[in-house]
Amino acid sequence: MKMSLTWLPLFLVVASGVAACGTREKAAEAEPDPAGAARSRIGVIFDPSRVRTGDTIAGVVVDRVSVTRAVVDSSYVGDITFRGEIELSGRTFPHFDADASDAACFEADSASAARLPRWAGDRRRAWFCFSNATEANRALGPSREERPARVVIADFTIHRGLSDQVNSARFVRLLGNATADTSR
Q1: Among 18, 98, 139, 176, which one is most buried in terms of CB atoms within 10 A?
Q2: What does the pLDDT look like over 6-34, one tens digit per residue?
């Protein structure tokens, strides 16, 4: 079969794409701990079915575990609370729900998000609302304004359900303004 020169570039692109199928590089992972945690770009991933009170994940201690399988699809749902302080950089922002207009929320930048505990399969952005919104708003400014910040949090809690769930944390202190990381 004779191929014209106008089709040759297209043929080469398709052929190289087919040849590359299945040759994906594997990301380096840390040795899993007893709770099944492994570090990744989006956080320290752990298996919610294996985590137990007292386990350490991402430098914080599992304080409370309330996890069950959902009847609908057998995925794990529930709450896991971590004891210990975590320093984060990112931005404050207003909660998007009109009913939660006084909520103070925070989204970790990509570097900070990579250090947070992350429930396996959780693809949500790395954001949460402060459980002590009054104290957070006092230190960070009104919740209706978005601004970069460096904060210390405690009692980070992952809330995972079949519908919208918002993670939470207790505001501890403001460390200062952060340079916004746009690589979220």
Answers
A1: 139
A2: 544 433 333 443 333 333 333 333 334 54
